[in-house]
Amino acid sequence: MSRLSVEMLAAEPAAEPITSAGQAQLGIAVLVGIAVIVLLITMFKLHAFLALTIGSIVLGATAGAPLDKTLLSFGNGLGDTVAGVGVLIALGAILGKLLADSGGADQIVDTILARASDRTMPWAMVLIAGVIGLPLFFEVGIVLLIPVVLLVAKRGGHSVMRIGIPALAGLSVMHGLVPPHPGPLAAIDAVDADLGVTLALGVLIGIPTAIIAGPLFSKYAARWVDIAPPEKMIPQRPSEDLERRPSFGATVATVLLPVVLMLVKALVDIVVNDPENHVQRVTDVVGSPLIALLAAVLVGMFTLGRAAGFSRERLSSTVDRSLVPIAGIVLIVGAGGGFKTTLVDIGVGQMIMDFSENWNISPLLLAWLIAVLIRLATGSATVATISAAGLVAPLAADMSVPHVALLVLAVGAGSLFFSHVNDAGFWMVKEYFGMDVGQTIKTWSVMETVISVVGLGFVMLLSLVL
């Protein structure tokens, strides 16, 4: 939900739940709704968009809500979420495609690796993954980086896990904790968190988390699983049809531009804290997610696309091709928003608030636990983030701005917990590295769990000082 929507609602009486069900029935409805989603995704292999849609209807029906009101809640939530997040996902996809097609991603990789020694190679890989992972979806990052990992391991005689785990950690941390990735964006929208503050805290938490789960954990992963790079997965880099590649400096500046703009907005909001101040009004506009990402895309067309010799027609084709793969992601995120709104409208939000008071449990820990359970059940970090954020959104009402951002990060950390056989990322990592299921669990799955637990630890520590 947008900030404007929240302000409009604040001026109106709180909406009554669309059902009169008691807490026991609501609890059963939540379990049944989530169980239906899990079964449809895992057992029947149904697309997550359809599973979330059906699960929302089952949720409302089990809670005794009229079907028309359930459908209205779902539709409203879907529309609000797509309106708030869909455009940002599209802009992020365009920027990522420009980065990949222009050779900018290769430029970053080649430049950093050329300056890295054998001892610093794992640190170089987590740095590369962190920078590349800012604008790219996780799956795209894997496709771009894993061939590089295998090439580096083979040519330098390095352990695959010693090089690969840091790269995976950097990508995963960006995916789970740092906007503009779909999960964090949807959670920010669900709990009405400040994007700039969340981004700043996400980076602050993400850096040490990626270091611990990447270069440090990779020492143990390399001992547990010692494998050679699979020959069939090592790419023979084709001759490129590019006239030239964008420079390293221009590429990094373009990737970091939206991050810098959003961080400047957050800093000015904290320091100035005057909505009528002209400087703050300008930074509020320039640092808004839409304008920041749009500016990066427009700049990227010149610093990446034109710098690589792209014609106007090729730039247009790159934009077109970047939008096709994200249709499913936008629909999943939108349906997750519909499921979240249905949860809130039947009264689950108030039930969660009542339970949290009775349990005397930290809202941040509660948010993490809910995300962990949904992640383990569905295998989807995005579904876990959206669903958990919807459940705990009412807890954000009385929180400070930094603590609402930490709530988002707690959900994001929980959504990464122990990837296993129901997660597509698990199988991508397994196949790229040529591992069996047991080896993948001992490396990839444990790494994801380390990220989740360490991320939660840093969230809880920051909550004590902010």
Written overview of the protein:
This protein has helices at 3-10, 23-42, 48-62, 67-101, 104-114, 121-133, 138-156, 160-177, 182-191, 195-224, 248-271, 278-286, 289-305, 312-323, 327-345, 348-359, 363-378, 381-392, 401-414, 424-433, 437-465. The chain is globular. The two termini are 25 Å apart. The protein has one domain. The longest helix has 35 residues, at 67-101. Helix 4 packs parallel to helix 13, helix 11 (248-271) packs across helix 12 (278-286) and helix 17 runs antiparallel to helix 18. With 466 residues, it is mostly helical.
Give the averaged pLDDT, no decimals. 84
Helix/strand/pairing category:
mainly alpha
3D shape: globular
Using only C-alpha atoms, the radius of gyration works out to 22 Å
Uncertain runs: 1-14
Into how many domains do the coordinates divide? 1
Beta-strand percent range: under 5%
Q: Tell me about the biggest sheet? A: none
Rounded to the nearest angstrom, the distance between the terminal CA atoms is: 25 Å
Number of strands: 0
Features:
globular; mainly alpha; 466 residues; single chain
Short structural description:
Helices cover 76% and strands 0% of the residues. By secondary structure, the chain is an all-alpha fold.
